[in-house]
Amino acid sequence: MNSYLISVVGPTAIGKTSLSLKLAEHFNTKIISADSRQFYKEMKIGTAAPTPEELARIKHYFIHHKSIEDNYNVGAFERDALQCLKLLFKSHNVVIMVGGSGLYVDAVVKGLDDFPDVDPSIRKELNKELKTTGIESLQQQLKDLDEKTYQNIELENPHRIIRALEICIGSKKPYSSFLNQKKAKRPFQTITIGLKAERDIIYHRINQRVDKMMEDGLLDEVKNLQQYQHLNALNTVGYKELFNYLNGEWTLNFAVSEIKKNSRRFAKRQLTWFRKDPSILWFNYQNSFDKIINQLTTYSI
Known about the structure:
By secondary structure, the chain is of the alpha/beta class. The protein folds into two domains: 4-113 and 181-299, Rossmann fold (3-Layer(aba) Sandwich), CATH 3.40.50.300; 120-178, Histone, subunit A. It is 49% helix and 9% strand. It has a six-stranded parallel β-sheet, with helices on both faces. Helix 3 packs across helix 4 (102-109), helix 5 (120-133) packs across helix 6 and helix 5 crosses helix 8 (158-171). The N and C termini lie close together (10 Å).
């Protein structure tokens, strides 16, 4: 198999973008983004998307190619990414993929899990419950029905929780029982590189990034999106907290502190997800690029 996908993963703010650019330049290739929020063209600052200068260095795919009003999900991304890779591998034997959205990374590398069809009325009832009693009620239901999923899911994302719950209720089986049942055969070999650091370092880098986002105009970006705050794409760390400030519920300082706290929680969930994969080659975020390249040479790329 002569086609290689080098996938760069790790927690937020660890340096994935920088490494992906160096790898793409080294292999003279292109980059696919597997970040589920960098898809949206209206969300540049709060998603830490590559800068215009970085985008000019290397051709990227799946960056700002959708609007927040578009209905785009992981299934559509799997289809589009595989088609993009098929074309790229015609002229490159190596392609780089980068992103911290574990589900989207796995969709490309392993394929999506196969879930049973369930009665649509279940989702309607869960959405009604979300509006009337709040997300905490749904979180507790999920904990009662599927402790394993509760421990691994993004608990602040109502879309993910409702999806898991409708499967639990509709199938009368845990959502987690349908996971990892099959491995998709891909016409390429994947090598996954993970970047890591001590927890205190990750948290410090996150705090610095949030401060930089605010300096770069995140608040103005969120103000311009306030009328769309009901959209699922904007139910995202960095945006939902500032909506609370703009809606008069929080002070600005508290909103920023919540962005930092929720980003740290997100980083913890990312690491939990990726550490389940024993095939990942882990490197300290300060390891030299030469060390990473030397490791990759063992794959005869």
